[in-house]
Amino acid sequence: MIERIDGALFTKAILSAAAAIEAERQQINELNVFPVPDGDTGTNMSLSLGAAATELSHHAHADAGRAVEAASQALLRGARGNSGVILSLLFRGFAKAVKDRASLDGVDLADGLSTGVDVAYRAVMKPAEGTILTVSRVSAALAAKAAEENPAVEFVLTQTLAAAEAALLETVHQNPVLEKAGVVDAGGRGYCVILSGMLAALRGEPFVAVPAVEGQPLRTRADFSEYMAEDIKFDYCTEFIVTRQKKRDVARLRALLEAIGDSLVVVDDEQVIKVHVHTNHPGRALEEALTYGPLSSIKIENMRIQHTEQVIRQSAASPEAAASASAQPESAARVVAPPTRRYGFVTVCAGDGLTRVLRDLGADQVIEGGQTMNPSTEAILQAVDATPAEMVFILPNNKNIILAAEQCLPLSEKELVVIPTTSIPQGIAALLAVDTRAGVSENREAMLAALSGVKSGSVTYAARDSSFDGRRIASGDHMALVDGALLYHHHDRAQVVTHLARAFGDEVPSFVTIFSGEGVDEEEAVQTRTVFEESCPGAEIQLIEGGQPVYYYLVSCE
């Protein structure tokens, strides 16, 4: 029976948990009641925890508290979707409770779990029962009782897992949607898998290293064999940590590093500044960094020699760069753009046509994502940093991205406002409502008001068999959705389009905009416009090639 865990054993537990949830990723995805492949829970939780596993695999921590804090920070920036964000909040609270502990016993574990639940519940505006929140709360309460009985960490974790699994079985009865579908909550299931993976590590059971996620591999090392030696523009991979002793604006350091190199990552967490940069002048980088405080963990490697010797080494060992590698190119620079105007706008979409529309309406940064892949908090934060404005409005355009966007609020030096847009039509309506001469509160209210004036429709497909709202949906069926709710489904896409057009016609709209998606040819798109013209005779109909994946059509009705 393991009595206590140190940093090394906690790291092993996280690696095991990450391997476990990756192995169960698709099975967890299958629990999602709504069958649209749109930011599935298993994928989001796996990528989020994978960020923590990558960080811990790169940096050893002897103290458990430090290891938990490092995992928490990586999770915060790597969080994707609602489930990933809630998971990061649970770890944030856990880290807050145990950050000063060299090792953890069962009492510490119970305290950390309880604090994590408190942090998560405070952060979620309308916590619902029958979710990962429920499973974590019930199991944390049992953990506290178990610690009173036996303070060994393995005993407490065993009891916590048993309580979580029992709570998971109850979720099917706590949420009407889950009950109709006859399944347990996907996020709660993921939480149980994580606890199970951690317990396996404590018991010394073997675990498999985290495999790559299809389409989004976890980048743990850079392969120099992919490049020719003459393609190396900057010779020295330079990394270091500054222990802050002076409260100076880190923007000056970022500006210098950007001027003398590339592949720049600068992470400032108030106590330390972590830097990774490729440059030909590492001395200048270190000299400027010294004006902020003493340096540690300095590493300078000649990448040209590495290439010549055919050595494949880790060139981007910054934990934050590794944690977000699945969302951003390794060379993406983390630089805070100096403001040149009052307002800026960051939004999310997938599809070249949609991107052009949003940019034409004033979006500074358009993050690729939404359907099938929700961007991480780090990806959204980088887009905010790259926006040259004093304050930035963030439009997620997807209900599963709103929480991740809100996590940027305390991380950015800029003033941020998240407008909770849940669809592309809502995002477009919000941008159209902006008045650059008005104040922040006036614009916020105008954008929120604009959301209520637009109805969003879509035509997509079912990625799996499902039972939703009493209706059986077969994999491959086409579905019409209105404001996220299922309107109609059928194997014939034309029938589905007709039902959506009729539903919009009942609203007697003045304007209808149709965005055709990936895989829709021009002939079909024109026919769809004709169907809407017949169903909405008094409306002005506009057809735009959006190019979005997953959704054959996105339609707005005003």
Annotation keywords:
558 residues; Serine Threonine Protein Phosphatase 5, Tetratricopeptide repeat; alpha/beta; Alpha-Beta Plaits; 21 helices; 16 strands; 46% helix; six-stranded mixed β-sheet; Rossmann fold; 4 domains
Would you give an account of this structure?
- 46% of the residues lie in helices and 17% in strands.
- The chain has a six-stranded mixed beta sheet.
- The protein has 21 helices and 16 strands.
- The chain starts with 6 loop residues before the first helix and ends with a strand.
- A hairpin with a 2-residue loop joins β10 (466-468) and β11 (471-473).
- By secondary structure, it is of the alpha/beta class.
- It is globular, with a radius of gyration of 25 Å.
- The relative contact order is 0.10.
Concise description?
With 558 residues, the protein is α/β, with parallel strands linked by helices.
How many structural domains can be distinguished in the coordinates? Answer: 4
Say which CATH homologous superfamily of the largest domain is assigned: DhaL domain
Question: CATH class of the largest domain, anyone?
Answer: Mainly Alpha
CATH architecture of the largest domain: Alpha Horseshoe
| Number of DSSP strand runs | 16
Radius of gyration: 25 Å
How far apart lie the N and C ends? 64 Å
Outline: globular
What is the average of the pLDDT values? 84
Alpha plus pi helix count:
21
Content of β-strand: 15-25%
| Structural class based on helices, strands and sheet pairing | alpha/beta
Low-confidence stretches: 208-231, 306-333
| Largest sheet: number of strands, sense, barrel closure | 6 strands, mixed
What is the percent of helical residues? 40-55%
Write the CATH fold name of the largest domain.
Serine Threonine Protein Phosphatase 5, Tetratricopeptide repeat
Main β-sheet, spatial strand arrangement: 13-12-9-16-14-15
